[in-house]
User: Fold these one by one.
Assistant:
Number 1:
Amino acid sequence: MSQLLTTDVLIVGGGIAGLWLNARLRQQGYNTLLIEQQSLGGAQTVKSQGIIHGGTKYALQGALTRSSEAIANMPERWLAALNGTGELDLQGVELLSNAHYLWSPGSITGNITSFFASKAMRGRVDQVKGAALPPALQHPQFKGRVYRLAELVLNVPSLIQRLAELAGDSLLQAKQLKPLYNNHAQLIGMQADNYLVQAQRVVLCAGEGTAELLNALQLQQPKQQLRPLHMVLVKGQALKPLYAHCLGGGSKPRITITTHPTTDGEWVWYLGGNLAEADGVARSADEQISHAQQELAELVPWLDQTQLSWQTLRVNRAEPAQSGLVRPDNAFLAEQDRLLVGWPTKLALAPDLSDRVLHHLTQHAIQPTATQTYPDLPRPVVAQPAWETLF
Ligand SMILES: Cc1cc2nc3c(=O)[nH]c(=O)nc-3n(C[C@H](O)[C@H](O)[C@H](O)COP(=O)(O)OP(=O)(O)OC[C@H]3O[C@@H](n4cnc5c(N)ncnc54)[C@H](O)[C@@H]3O)c2cc1C
């Protein structure tokens, strides 16, 4: 026998997009149910580097594009939430670093340097030296320049844990999802295992799983693109914290390094950027590790690599389709009757996606109904990050 659950908004997918949206809607008084197939954050979100970009890395092209303007206020919004004064109360979420750095191992070309010093970038990019350098770069052999960006790096598992708390009793784990239609062939919800969930709106934010859900709904649009990445993880006591894009001359960072504490008291460097993109994807795990070892030997030659452990992680980024696999820089939301389909395109842009959903609800006069509770549902667990499971 199926059990009927009714709610205002049904959210499919418990990554950052679904969890942030769920918390915001609940805070506005909406009843919500969020269905997660596996674990909370376990697809892309806890595999992310946790950087709350303000768009400054796009300034590597030497100009602030429109997209970098759009993302520019994200660090401020997240910081307010972390301080308990923002749109969500994220007090207790661990801030790994209150800055991300741009690090040029050589000399940055004249254009970029003068752009960094320009009025557009004032207060967003400051050069740091000596004791103000990130600990991993404080070494007599260090050469190059380092710029501090007003961006944040979060401990993503602690973020997901907090959003799971804010979700209260609204989380439901279900393996099988099928669309539910009324007699007029209108979507009215989802069958999720033995539950029939009816809602005024259904929001798909299932990351890579969205394509299959759209297929089940017999919809051709919006189309999704996947960008495969081959990340590298390195663990050991010789590592010190470093949160930086290392510049390589092109418009993308040569390597992006974030540092994550593990429960056994060590640090893991998580390496992405260009290293993890096309050429990196083509490499086998062993080739990718040996490439990363050479990169670090060149960039941080004082780092003793003898006691380090190495792993790689393959993961797809799921985004709305763009021509030529260009990176989309805004949260994306498509609307079709009662169905909304979203990809935040970045962890940092989850608030932007929620804004768009809330705007839709306001425009269509969808109001919160009387408060419901959902006791005794099967609940999804919070995913473990790769730095805990791979070593
Ligand atoms: C290696 C890497 C590094 C990154 N670094 C950063 C960064 O530093 N900063 C940044 O801003 N962004 C970063 N990103 C991007 C960011 O991680 C993603 O944009 C964001 O996490 C996407 O969140 P999401 O909720 O849309 O998707 P996901 O996190 O993929 O969540 C989707 C959820 O939906 C669930 N699901 C799928 N199908 C179904 C179904 N049928 N029924 C129920 N549930 C389903 C999945 O199990 C999953 O939990 C990074 C991404 C990667 C891969």
Note: The chain has ten helices and 19 strands.
Number 2:
Amino acid sequence: MDATEFRKRGKEMVDYIADYLETIEKRRVYPDVEPGYLRPHIPDSAPEEPERFEDILKDVEKIIMPGVTHWHSPYFFAYYPTANSFPALLADMLSGGIGCIGFTWASSPACTELETVMLDWLGKMINLPPSFLAEKDGEGGGVIQGTASEATLVALLAARTKAIQRAQSENGTLTQGDVIGRLVAYTSDQAHSSVEKDGLIAGVKTKQLPTDDAFAVRGSALRKAVDQDKAAGLIPFFFCATLGTTTCCSFDKLSELGPICNEENIWMHVDAAYAGSSFICPEFRHLLNGVEFADSFNFNPHKWLLVNFDCSTMWVKKRTDLTCAFKIDPVYLKHAHQESGLITDYRHWQIPLGRRFRSLKMWFVFRMYGVKGLQEYIRKHVKLAHEFKDLVLQDDRFEICADVILGLVCFRLKGTNELNEALLKNINASRKIHLVPCNLRGKFVLRFAVCARTVESAHVQFAWKHITKLAGELLKAQKQQD
Ligand SMILES: *Cc1c(COP(=O)(O)O)cnc(C)c1O
């Protein structure tokens, strides 16, 4: 493919994507395929001779699309949203075209500098304390990680390094292994599974703290665990708080937890993967109160801020906590400006070396929507979630299982777990809408998450009608059985 053909095919591809997104409602949101469906449709090995673009595109429709879950369908209400917007798609294309790898400032100065400024922009949009910003001479700053899981791991590893250094400075005979064996990290019993996985990767004990009636970790739970563990000779060193848990969008009480962490030399990391985007609205910003106690904070604009995957933004108060933990300097990566203090080498802020020019997506989206446009977008989703909640509340066969604060509604039929499992099975088997469940203190609960950029009240109303129709059939069948 030469540049002339690229121009032509590029325009066709843009048309294909625009058509796909414009008509996505007509597709079945959840694919009707069995495991292994794909292999029989494609050759066993790559072609020796080049093939034609038309043939590849034809196969996309024939082989790939039937196996796609359409996350951007307005009938998709599963998990949490994943962002998709036209400005971000275009910026992603440009990022691919430039194709630089921005591991150091020198490896592509614009890639590093735009990222630093975009993280300051976004930090100001959510009114993050200035101590997290890089600005001209701050000690903090932000970085784009691939995912929230990686951000938590980076924070955990940096905290581990700090804890080892502290323990060794107090007792010079301790080896690194001695200290690691005694370290203990905490999170909530509602935290995302990635926190536990990160603990496994880092080789440290992780404990899940119990939550209160609102599924939030309280200061008293952390205090109790810290005191017990210290008495047993362990070293509490890390706490991952969640703002907007994946199960039910609950919020840990940062203002109670933060002071304990600060007092006990425990690194507090805040995972707000989904909820973080809502903090750009003044009416939701209070949910972030207490972040001033944190050492690091992360959320995913790639979930709810219209910046396509991947873009997980992470801020730290002291960037030297990261750069000191992960700094290794082979000759081939050294450059003339690295000691100037003015610039950032993002390779010291993350696990991989290579990194894409992802801040272009933020820049395009922030400029094309404006803060006002993004706020409206968040508000619309929250409003739709409340519309769904009100529908559930009007039907006394159902119950709401957790406070509806943002765009997630946890609900279930009053009755057994088996009944609700059957309802969800029927919903997803019909493939008209897609939902996933969660488990709240042993209860099987359905999650209704407002996800797509194009979702409207009509889709929410349709979803509820569909759910109640299936519920009615199920309850009727059950009565006949009894
Ligand atoms: C979605 C989610 C994650 C995982 O996000 P990734 O970016 O895919 O790692 C972590 N924590 C919470 C609270 C989430 O909602």
Note: The first strand starts at residue 141 and ends at 145.
